[in-house]
Amino acid sequence: MVRMERFAAYVMLSSGLKRFLIALVAGALSSLSQPPFGLFAINFLTLPVLLWLVDGASGDPDRGFPGRRFPSFWVGWSFGLGYFVASLWWTGAALLVEADEFAWALPLAILGLPAYLAIYYGIATFVARLIWTDGLTRLFAFAAAFGLGEWLRATMLTGFPWNAIGHAMTPFPVMMQSLAVTGSHAMNTLAVLVFAAPALMVTGRGGRAAGGIALALAAAHIGYGAYRLREAPGKAPDDARVVRIVQPMIDQAAKIDDRERSRIFEDHLRLTAEKPKDGARRPDYVIWPETSIPFILTQNPDALVRIADVLEDGQILIAGAVRTENDGSGTPTRYYNSAYMIDSQGQIIGASDKVHLVPFGEYLPFEGLWTRLGINAIAAFPGGYSAAPRYQHLTAPDGTKFLPLICYEVIFPTESREQAHAADAIVNLTNDGWFGHTPGPWQHFHQARLHAVETGLPVIRNSNSGISAVIDPYGRVATGLDFGAVGVIDGGIPPKIALPLTGYSRELNFWLVELSLALSAIFTRLSFIFRRN
User: Which of the four pLDDT bands, split at 50, 70 and 90, describes residue 191?
Assistant: First the structure.
């Protein structure tokens, strides 16, 4: 304990470059708590270090309010920079698919995006320091401010809640179930409360209380997960509808090569036509990944004939494709990243367009400015994709309602909440082949599992390169194909389940937790000021 106290004092009293490096390294180590590593316990070291850094973040009293508070923002930003560079460096891999055009932007992906996201962690430590105390309630201030910072990151400027700190508390299904009660936002707040508690156990007053609160929360988190899984059915019922997921593993360079389009289409058809193994039931639905149809389907009626030739009577195909609209002149004026539903007669019986587009990937914010500079979106047509105004179901002839979530739409916990309530299953179509064999596909897959728990819906996830899977409403993988595998998987679709709380109730819980912790810290802070005066 004495050594830990000395270490804490060393961290608190550090300054200059040493202080920046401590925060940077602590943030980078925290990235190990996210997939594919899942070393969540590392946060019991790194978040106390950050709390100690905030403890010592006192600016020059003669420099006014900004000067006094900048050090607290700086340590949070430095921690965030290390965290996001170490956990999101793989985003740069997408720029190397067409390196001659986009390689120049690598520093923006590897450093620029993390530097922006780190601002929200800087805001968190800045806000926390405003209501800082010496006792237990500084832990409350720290957790509430971090919860607010993560909420802002998930909502501001289209939002990007990738690798939220609360995800570290959900590495296994038994540790995912609390999301059905807390939701993702409250999970962030409570995770920081638990992870940072050891800081008070080493230094300052309130250590025992902090340890007791953290232990109680952790026990409730795991205990509730064990109870919920004990009551959960083990597999889909025997009469469940069967889905086939086609994972073709098409190299991204081939997907953008016009000469490869016919081969790519035939690869999907060949896998679709494979007979079920071991005399299993034939699939009712077939799922292809995002933009799996490598041309404008409505301009290629022969493609619909080929699909009809492969599908058996009554089978339904859901496939990712680019959909166009025009003004009557015959020239496309809008492009959409879409999911088509096609029946065994080769008829398009439904379509759903992507709502939440990827900035700089599928469209350019302030497009006129960038195009004048000769810069285009990475994965878009000239002018970029258009966004749909709302999420839409794809309803099969048998009445089954699928909610298509394309690519990273599945990481947003509340956007499609109303449509999810009326759906029977989520179909997540994506193409993680952009990112190669990096942590990205595993992180994306993990967040799809969390979305299943938070919505109470099974998630049928098809990624061109993997990881593809049927995920039940408890976040468990019923069947799947690993990254890089080529083939198909057939599995029954698990039924949806009723959640203990509605999405709106979970959101209310988040704000109640935030308010309770913040008011406790503010009251203690004001009491200290009044006593001092």
Answer: very high
